[in-house]
């Protein structure tokens, strides 16, 4: 598979976040998204996941079925861990696994791998920030998806969980998976980098029609 973004633009809240953005990610490759706060890294991940519309340009996943949205091939782990606090840890993962399909590990195994086996029957609402993130990352283990979209995946997790995450990413890439990762951290393996520009200037007034965001496009290096 190959993910290609061609001349992409993204508009949110009437403001242009980026435009003219081009990149390509081959099977087995990880593209790191870098740039200052507000550059549009999260927006790009959400756009690829299908959670934010493509305002201009084209996004395609070569090797995928044409009538299936790119997001259907992706694991998206965003800033919010998307957990239901009243459900148990195991139920949360079970819910996600049911949504995502293509199971590759049962819930118990995935929870054990992220160090949450002992908390499986506790409500997710009691989890610490790092434990919530571990639970979100357990989705990567439970279900098979070729494209991983990870937004600051190392946030809140300790050294042990980081090492486990890096192992997971390595295995994913070695198996021909693709990954886009927004992070301010250094990753311990070879990656390509997409530098994204600075934030668009704040609009002078709340008239969306008058907003002219800077071209914050970039190219993968
Ligand atoms: N839901 C939203 N509605 C309108 N504008 C938004 C929304 N979310 C983000 N934006 C705007 O999009 C721009 C890019 O935000 P984004 O979160 O993609 O940046 P980022 O590069 O991921 O930043 P950070 O490093 O702080 O996480 C910002 O100017 C932000 O205000």
Structure in words:
- The protein has 221 residues and is α/β, with parallel strands linked by helices.
- It contains five helices and eight strands.
- Mean pLDDT is 89; it is low at 199-221.
- The two termini are 20 Å apart.
- It has helices spanning 41-49, 89-100, 107-113, 129-142, 159-174, and strands at residues 2-12, 15-26, 30-34, 56-62, 74-77, 147-151, 178-182, 192-195.
- The longest helix has 16 residues, at 159-174.
- The strands form two sheets. It has a five-stranded parallel β-sheet, sandwiched between helices. A three-stranded antiparallel β-sheet has the order 2-1-4, covered by helices on one side.
- Residues 196-221 are annotated as: Disordered.
Largest sheet: 5 strands, parallel
Instruction: Report the bound ligands by name, code or SMILES.
Output: adenosine-5'-triphosphate
Order of secondary-structure elements: EEEHEEHHHEHEE
Low-confidence stretches: 199-221
Question: Would you summarize the structure shown here?
Answer:
By secondary structure, the chain is an alpha/beta fold.
Keywords, please?
single chain, 221 residues, alpha/beta, five-stranded parallel beta sheet, 24% strand, disordered C terminus
């Amino acid at each position: 598979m190959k993910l290609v973004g061609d001349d992409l633009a993204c508009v949110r809240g009437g403001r242009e976040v980026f435009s003219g953005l081009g990149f390509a990610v081959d099977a087995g490759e990880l593209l790191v998204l870098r740039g200052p706060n507000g550059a549009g890294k999260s927006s790009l991940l959400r756009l690829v996941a299908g959670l934010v519309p493509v305002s201009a340009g084209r996004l395609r996943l070569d090797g995928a079925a044409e009538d299936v949205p790119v997001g259907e091939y992706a694991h998206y782990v965003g800033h919010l861990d998307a957990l239901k606090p009243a459900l148990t840890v195991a139920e949360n993962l079970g819910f996600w696994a049911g949504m995502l399909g293509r199971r590759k590990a049962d819930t118990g195994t995935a929870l054990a791998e992220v160090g949450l086996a002992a908390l499986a029957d506790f409500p997710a609402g009691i989890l610490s920030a790092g434990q919530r993130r571990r639970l979100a990352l357990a989705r990567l283990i439970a279900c098979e998806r070729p494209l991983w979209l990870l937004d600051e995946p190392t946030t809140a997790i300790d050294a042990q969980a980081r090492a486990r995450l890096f192992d997971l990413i390595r295995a994913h890439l070695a198996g021909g998976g693709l990954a886009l990762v927004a992070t301010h951290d250094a990753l311990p393996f070879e990656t390509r980098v997409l530098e994204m520009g600075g934030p668009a200037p704040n609009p002078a007034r709340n008239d969306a029609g008058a907003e002219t965001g800077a071209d914050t496009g970039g190219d993968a290096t």
